[in-house]
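> run fold DUF8006 domain-containing protein
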Amino acid sequence: MLPLQLVDSFLLNYNVGQALLLVFVLTTLALLPLKSMKALALNTIVFGVVFLATPQSLVPPHYMFLGISLVVVGPMLFVMGD
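> ok
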């Protein structure tokens, strides 16, 4: 377990969008050894919805466009997956 002060000091330097982007990249890297395109697609869709649902007062508007693109690309990956 990480102490809360360490997490708080990390999040003070970045906005919520950057923290969510880091978590998205880490979960995508964690899913790569599974070699499942459907799991990767579901991860992409979920994070697209998370980026879209994040209030605009917390993140810059370009994260909303990232969420839209992830929601569009995710189902295509799901259909192409085995």
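The helical segments are 4-12, 16-31, 37-53, 62-80.
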